[in-house]
Amino acid sequence: MEEGEWVEIGEVIELAGQCGKCELPVILTSDDINTHTHKTAYVSAPRVLSQLKMVGCHIHFSDDRCLQLFQHGDNQVRAIVDQPGFELEVDPRLPAGHLYQQHRQPHDPPVCEGIHYSTAGEWRPNDILDTDASLSSFAKRVILDHFVGTHQTYATSNHLNRHVGGGRLDSLFTQSPHTPVAGCSTTLSRDGNARELVLTDGSHSFVAWISIFDADDIVHMSVQTTESPVCVSGAFKDGLPMTTQLGSVALGRESDVFDFSVVQRKPSEGEGDDGWGGELKEGGGTVAGEGQDGAQDGDGEQEARRVARRVARSRGMRGRRLSLQEFLRSGSSRESDKGRKPGGKGQ
Q: Using CA atoms, how far apart are residues 96 and 292, in angstroms rounded to an integer?
C-alpha cells in the first residue's frame, strides 16, 4: 500500500491504545479483511470507512461493545450498536461555506450522527445530531467520550473571548480541522465550533486533553487529565505540572487557564433530572463544579446540549432528529434559557 494510506486510522488506534481500548499493535486477521465481500466493495467506499470496518472490532469498550460498523444495504451504516438511531450519515450535504465542506477530504469525509455514551453507562442515540469533521474524528470522539464516562479525571476551565490573545483561539476554529496543532498528538472536531486537542501520546502514563467550545465568540475552555496529582487543592498548574507543561505548548498565550482551581471529576453514576447527569439548579446549570468568576467546570458544549434537549422535550420534538447547529441558529435555546449562553450563567 502507498505510504500514508493508514495515517488517519493510525491516529485512531493510537488514541484507543492510550485510553486502554485496544492492544497495540493491532494485527488484522482474515476475518477482519473479510468484512468486505470483495475488493470492489473496499475501494468503492471512502478509504477511512473501509479501514474502520476492519479495525473497529479491535477497539473495545468496557460494556462488551466495540467500535464495530454494521452495513445495511448499499447506503446505511450503523456504529457500535446495530439498532435504529445509531446510523452514520457519511459525507452529508453541507452548506458551501461550511468549514468542513471547504476542507472536505474524499477519503475521510464528514459524518453526521447522534451517538453518545450516556451517564447511565450505555451507548444511546441522540435526537440532536453532531456533524463530525471526518470519519476518523468521529471514531476518536467516541473513544474519548467513553473514556471520560469511565475514568476519574482532574479538570479546570475558563471562559475567554475568542478574538483576544493574538488570534490563537480564533485560528483553532477557522483553520482546517485536519491541520495538526502544535503540542498535540491528535485532534478532533465537531459542529464547526467544538474541538478536542489531545496532549498526550503512548509514551505518557496518563491521558490529557483540552476541550474548546465557541458560543457567540465566547470560548469555554476546559482541561482534563488522568495525571496523578501532586496535590488536589489550589491552582491546576501546581497540582498537575506535567499536563500544564504539555498544555502550555498547545495554548501559548492562552495558558492562564491553568491558574484556575483544580476539580476532581468522577465517572457519572446514573442520570440527573435532565437525563444528562448532574443535579440541576435554577436556570439549567449543574450544581457541582462551578469555578472562579462564574465559569463552570462542566463542559460548555454539554450544557448547550442539555438546554437544547430540555426544550425539545417540552415542545414534543423528541421524535425529530436535527443538528445542534440548526437548533442554536433557530434561537430556541436562547428563548428557553432567558438569555443564558451555553456554559454560562443567567443574566
A: 40
Q: Tell me: the pLDDT tens digits for 260-291?
A: 999 999 886 333 333 323 332 222 233 223 33
The reported pTM is: 0.78
Q: How far is CA 5 from CA 2, 9, 21, 27, 50, in A?
A: 6, 9, 23, 16, 12
- Check residues 194 and 331 and name the one with the higher pLDDT: 194
Return the H-helix or E-strand segment holding 158.
strand 153-161
Per residue in 298-344, pLDDT (tens digit) is: 444 555 555 444 433 333 333 334 444 444 444 443 333 333 333 33
Give the cell for residue 67. 467500535
Strand intervals (E) in 83-145: 87-90, 111-117, 123-132
The answer to whether residues 54 and 66 touch, using CB atoms and an 8 Å cutoff, is no
End-to-end CA distance of the chain: 57
Domain range annotation of the chain: 7-135, 151-304
Q: Are strands 123-132 and 322-323 parallel, antiparallel or unpaired?
A: parallel
In Å, how far are 9, 186, 199, 200 from 183, measured between CA atoms? 20, 9, 6, 9
Nearest CA to 235 out of 213, 256, 206, 208 is that of 256
The grid cell for 242 is: 506535567
**Cα 328 to the center of its chain, rounded Å:** 18
d(CA 83, CA 124): 10
DSSP state of 132: E
pLDDT at 108: 97
**Distance between CA atoms of residues 105 and 46, nearest Å:** 9
How large is the angle between the packed helices 7-18 and 47-55, nearest 10 degrees?
A: 30
Q: What share of the chain is helix, strand, coil (3-state, %, to 5)?
A: 35, 20, 45
- Cα distance between residue 284 and residue 344, in whole Å: 10
**Burial of 234 per CB tally in 10 Å (0-12, 13-18, 19+):** exposed
**Scanning the structure block, which residue is given the C-alpha cell 441522540?**
126
